[in-house]
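$ ./design --mode recover --in tokens.txt
reading tokens...
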């Protein structure tokens, strides 16, 4: 890209930067963007850039493939019920070890290598994600009862990027495996975030699942029920869209489902006219 084109890109991004400056942005991170090392580096640089221009970024991450890998090495079988990992007490400890340990600290390190300040926390810290069992059939899969976001707001006020692993707890000391989309939506709602971005392995919501050119760029909450009836929102997309709807119900202005396989998809979504995924709005 020539220098004049670079300058033009920056000039076009300025109104969007102004809109988000000093506002909270929650990013749920997982999927292919987390597995691919080059994409991971791109995502961390993008997050640091957003922080440097005055956007208060909160990174919420999962780590399903890493959990599956360690369970396999420990010769512990994985079982899924309705798309959710059955989590007994032993598996819950593995989840805590992987998410709050290996994955979380790796992301913190990458952010700090790119020049920003980050602190890794999990949902057990400060009782951030206070949970109860979602369904007895699932074991220690957590349903969030309350979000105690004070620890996040304290970190944001001091200029840190909070990096949150989705491990919850209850008053009895039980460890819960919490769906990352659900946790990100709950945290965004409690913080009154300007926007929530759910990074995933598809382009966004498609009117034809076999055709990536059929991307639906904008969806109003009032349209969701009709899209479910038409079969456009189905399968694994239903709980993801439910998270979008819940975040907006709790006060988040915009929620995006965007393709984490695309380099710089966060910047394209936030700082350009085009966008790269599906935006959900109230109304």
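writing sequence...
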């Amino acid at each position: 890209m020539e220098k004049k084109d670079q300058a033009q890109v920056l000039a076009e991004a300025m109104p969007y930067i102004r809109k988000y400056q000093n506002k909270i942005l929650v990013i749920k991170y997982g999927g292919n963007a987390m597995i691919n090392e080059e994409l991971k580096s791109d995502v961390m640089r993008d997050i640091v850039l957003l922080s440097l221009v005055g956007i208060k970024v909160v990174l919420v991450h999962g780590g399903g493939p890493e959990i599956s890998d360690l369970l396999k090495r420990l010769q512990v079988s994985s079982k899924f019920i309705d798309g959710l990992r059955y989590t007994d007490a032993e598996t819950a400890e593995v989840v805590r070890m992987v998410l709050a340990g290996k994955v979380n600290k790796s992301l913190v390190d990458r952010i700090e290598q790119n020049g920003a300040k980050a602190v890794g926390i999990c949902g057990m810290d400060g009782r951030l994600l206070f949970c109860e069992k979602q369904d007895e059939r699932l074991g220690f899969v957590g349903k969030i009862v309350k979000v105690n976001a004070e620890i996040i707001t304290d970190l944001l006020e001091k200029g840190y990027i909070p990096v949150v692993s989705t491990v919850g707890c209850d008053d009895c000391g039980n460890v819960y495996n919490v769906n990352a989309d659900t946790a990100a939506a709950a945290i965004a709602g409690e913080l009154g975030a300007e926007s929530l971005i759910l990074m995933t392995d598809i382009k966004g919501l498609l009117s034809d699942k076999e055709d990536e050119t059929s991307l639906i760029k904008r969806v109003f909450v009032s349209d969701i029920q009709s899209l479910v009836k038409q079969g456009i929102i189905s399968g694994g997309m239903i709980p993801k869209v439910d998270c979008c709807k819940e975040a907006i119900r709790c006060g988040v202005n915009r929620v995006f489902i965007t393709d984490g396989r695309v380099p710089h998809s966060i910047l394209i979504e936030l700082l350009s006219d085009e966008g790269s995924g599906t935006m959900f709005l109230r109304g």
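exit 0
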